[in-house]
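Hi there, hope your week has been kind to you so far. Do you reckon you could talk me through the fold, stretch by stretch? I've dropped the whole record in just underneath, so have a look:
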Amino acid sequence: MRKSLQTRLTVYFIALVLIPLLIVGAIGTWQTYNSEVPQALESQGEIAKRVAEQVKNFIEGRETELRSLTEINDFSNATRDEQSVLLSNLFSNQTVYEELILTNGQGRELIFLSRLKVVTPEEFDNRTGSEEFDKPKETEATYFSPVSFNEVTGEPYMVVSVPLLDLRSGRLDYVLIAKFRFKSVWDLMGQADLTGGGVVYMTDSNGFVVAHANPSFVLKRAQITPPSENSFATGLSGASSALAVEQLAFEDQTFYILAEQPASEALSLALNNITLTIITTLVAIVVAGFLGALAARQITTPIAELATTAQLISEGDLTRTTHVSNQDEIGALATAFNRMTSQLRDLIGSLELRVTERTKALSSVAEVGIAASTILETDELLQQVVDLTKERFNLYHAHIYLLNEAGDTLVLASGAGAAGRQMVAEGRSIPLDREQSLVARAARERKGVTVNDVTQAPDFLPNPLLPNTRSELAAPMVVGGSLIGVFDVQSDTVGRFTDADIAVQTTLSSQIAVAVQNANQYEETRAALSQSEKLFNASDRLSQATNLQELIKFIVESLDIRAIDRAILGSLAYNDKDELDGMTIVANWSQSAELPSSPVGTHYPKEMLSSLSMFTSAEPLFFSDVLNDEHVDDATRAIAQKVNYRSVAALPIYIGSRRDAIVLLEGQQPHNFTQAETRLLTSLSPQFAAILENRRQFERAQEQAKREAMLNLITQKIQSATSIEAAMKITARELGHALGMKPTAVSLDSSALAGEVMKNKENA
């Protein structure tokens, strides 16, 4: 049975003689004391460092939390309601905050959240002049306030202010002011791993205690001068203690973490060794010398070897191990030390691998994001994203679903490789409410979801084109709270995706969503420009038309809407009660002679009109499918089937305040008129009315001019007659020609004739 170190020391020291034992005991005691002093201070220093790190992480965690809230969610570009929702979510989830205040760049409060009072917008104040606003505005850095105490509750608190700058101009947009409870730091003091009567507390730069496990020290404003270095000095309790200090700096604020242990406890081992040495010296007076030397040699040799190895390891050589020669406590310590070194070596290697993988993932995200931001055509953009993602992340497959306009279905928009293109060509889609779909679940929950073994997942949707899928990750593409689609990646390895992968792919999905939104806005802008060009060209061509038949043809050709197969222009007639009485076709157009079309001049009485609503509506009407539209009556459907049309656009033409005509555009196939098409057609109605009125006025002016020219000609011929009888003949003949060769008689009053004879005599 092996003997313990304590047993061997006892045996050896008993054998020492008085003088050697006295000398060795005195030297050993002195060495023990000298070694225990730095050990005690080092122990307290470790406690102070741990607590300081915890306090630092806590306070910096608030800063990181606030910056993450503003930077990840594009806070500066969010609406006020969105900003309020983000701050309210943080305020409700993190009870450590007592107040959250958002001000604009001039210090005016915009949002005020508080747990102690309700602040209405009318009570919003201006923070200009306060350090929590002026400091971050001046320095453009986070501001940390001194620790203060609430006058009502007596609780300590600290203020952190984060400036939000415009990345383009550098202008200060907002300042986010957070007032959080400092009691959590008190709790860290109480949770510290201490021994005996040791305590740990926190002071400000003036030495006032601001955090202590015992709140009375804080409330009574206890003060201590922190030592410049770890040493034995008078502690907060007034007794000699081992004091270790760690300094914390947050911008202009400086704090000190002090770990304190009574000297009687810190040096207890040295005191015990002195007592033991004296007793052992008195008892083992003769044999202590010889056995003491032997014991010292057996003890110090493995310790020295262990210390040398520790020194080499501390310098970075993790391949070193210490030799285990004995099975006593030192041997057990050496074994544990070797095991610890091996674990540390494995841990560092694992951390380096994880850092490398994360760096590679972030680099891939940046590369894909840059590629996406440079493409403005949606299909090309999505294809580039899925192909790059599959290649850079070494995935089995990647594809993107986009939410349709109705908001109820996810439509496959792009997929990597031949399988992805085939699925897109097949028009695959997933209803948003489908339970057995990881993609639909990610869209509904608005968060990244993953399955690392699809064979065990009830909501995995198998795909015969991707038979080797073993794990899947779906991340929603969200911009400003709006769902754009879902980014789905798959791997042929079980357990491929981790929480870190979810975070990476979610970030990438957000970048893709923004790129898709930008591409859509670009396409909408380009479509609007195209519409404007069409409208300009249509107006120009309409103004060139020489007759109504050419006018209706120009309308259709200028619009370039593929769904229109024929068009008619009808003149509306009204009865004495100003009610629609019928319509006469004055112009028509058909792209094919095979399409039936009523000839010009055909009159339709009120009872024969296909749908009275088309002719009486004050606004343009658009029917995507007449046969299946619930607002269309049976008579209209019957006529539509007879004349073979399905889609209809009816444009009322106003001359003054009255509907004077109507343009009907018809198509053989169903057609959902787009917003651009409806806006374009609607905008043509007043232009067409103006042109139609101008044509009518021009035609009336031509008729008037023709009549006046005819009258002038007849008058000239009559004036050229030499007698009344000749003038009468000319009048009858010319009026007959003007009236269409009708029989014409001209008579002259006898009294007028007598007057003419007298006039001639007088002239003679």
User: Anything to note?
Assistant: The CA atoms of residues 48 and 259 lie 5 Å apart.
